[in-house]
Specification:
mainly alpha
């Protein structure tokens, strides 16, 4: 099992994580099911259906309306899949032990994030910016710097960064960007717009598909032998 396995497995885990995140988002916004598109660009910024009290409470982050069964579990599963995918991918890269350890750092806060999310029972914590989400983003930034500095230019480096972009999807910057884009796509932006979270899920799926397709082509071309890369730079094995 070589480069193809590494890229394809990462691809599958990213896509699966995106699907799980999408399911969690759908479950979270069930109170707005009948008016989910009201005020959005897809409805021409019009309001064909009124928001129910339950929907308005969910937009406000209130825990008055209980989360649907499986919401926290689906989001926790998504975070775990991201961690597993990255944990499997990084060891197959030609890095020395120290650099591999640094690039693997996002896995630690991801596992903790999954455990925190699994214990979540209140809607007001779904999109809360926590220390753990900040740690995910910070660890991802450090890993990205290592990849940019020590990896050779080429598709291998690009795909590693692309995978990392999805792996850190639950980080602070990703969450804020998701929110900013959603309020730009919806007139119902006085609170959290219905559907917030879908863009993050879509990012994971798209990145996963690109990693799989482009990584498969890299695998067909082979990879440098260890002796051709004495500096310990990042090259897919």
């Amino acid at each position: 099992m070589g480069a193809r396995f590494a890229y394809v497995f990462l691809s599958l885990t990213l896509v699966a994580a995106g699907i799980a995140a999408g399911v969690a988002t759908w479950l979270a916004w069930l109170p707005c099911d009948d008016a989910g598109l009201s005020g959005s660009i897809l409805a021409g910024y019009q309001y064909p259906a009124e928001f129910t009290d339950a929907c308005l409470q969910r937009m406000d982050g209130s825990d008055a309306v209980p989360l649907a069964a499986g919401t926290a579990e689906a989001k926790a599963l998504s975070a775990l899949l991201l961690g597993v995918g990255w944990l499997t991918f990084v060891p197959r890269l030609r890095l020395n032990a120290r650099l591999k350890t640094v690039v693997l750092l996002p896995v630690v806060p991801l596992v903790w994030y999954a455990m925190e999310t699994r214990r979540t029972l209140d809607a007001d914590t779904l999109w809360e910016l926590t220390r753990t989400s900040g740690a995910i983003e910070l660890a991802g930034l450090v890993a990205a710097i290592v990849i940019l500095v020590w990896s050779p230019k080429g598709r291998e480096r690009s795909l590693s960064l692309l995978g990392l972009l999805a792996v850190t999807g639950f980080g602070v910057a990703h969450t804020v960007l998701d929110y900013m884009m959603m309020i730009g796509l919806s007139d119902a932006n006085w609170d959290m717009p219905p559907g917030s979270g879908y863009l993050t899920a879509a990012l994971m799926v798209i990145c996963g598909l690109l990693v799989g397709v482009l990584g498969w082509n890299i695998g067909r071309g082979g990879s440098p032998a260890p002796s051709d890369n004495p500096s310990g730079q990042l090259v897919a094995a």
